Amino acid sequence: MVTSQPHLYSFPDTETLAKQLRPYVLRCQNAALARHNTFRVAVSGGSLPVVLAKALLADSNGSPEDTPQFSKWNIFFADERAVPLDDKDSNYLLLKDELLSKIPAELGAPTIHPIDEKHVRDGDTQALADVYQEDLMRSFAAKESVKLPVFDLILLGCGPDGHTCSLFPGHELLREKDAWVAAETESPKPPPKRITLTLPVVTSALNIAFVATGGGKKEILKAIFDNEEGHSLPSALVNQGAGEKVSWFTDHPAVEGIAFPRRGSL
Ligand SMILES: O=C(O)[C@H](O)[C@@H](O)[C@H](O)[C@H](O)COP(=O)(O)O
Question: What is the CATH number of the domain that holds 70?
């Protein structure tokens, strides 16, 4: 557990949120490119790909700092449903439809790391997770001493029950210490079979951003930020494990009535 606090930002609407998310993501990109000439990012499903597309496909001011260099991006999935890549439930398909297919050619094409459909077809969700972990190992563990992958940025959503990735409240997966990627076969939210990054991988990232909008998130965000009882929720565990590395991008309806201090700009 770290003692520093997450950053909570709140904006009037999703448009304004997306305008602020852009420089945040690009700062993460630019720092990563300066460090190791590649930007390793993990993304979630839900409403995130739409907001991310709004942020990243907006016109650049022309400066190198404000330009997504997609050819240097390696995009992984924070969680993925065990379905074919062309299934309507696939997070890959969602990201493809909302963002990847709309990237102008001059910005370059990112390297995408989708799940291996072979283990979707044979129904072996543990093998699906293991193969995805091997993909991460190839990308991150150049040295054998690497215990956990360190993403430059992980972009997350927060469900109305406080879940994030496919880490659900009270689930034994929250205690996983060793695996980088875990299989979930009885998700309380359909579809039941999924794979997910584990909590230690999420909290090891250099930057972690949640995007949570709408009045439907008000109760759960209050529990996460203000209430002792909410502290064991998966999204709260990310706050506790990563502290100031975490930034929450919310809109005003999502944080109405929350006492935790929030800011209107980065
Ligand atoms: O796999 C899933 O079931 C979804 O991807 C889910 O985890 C989503 O990210 C959150 O429920 C937040 O959803 P919203 O961003 O739509 O609020």
Answer: 3.40.50.1360
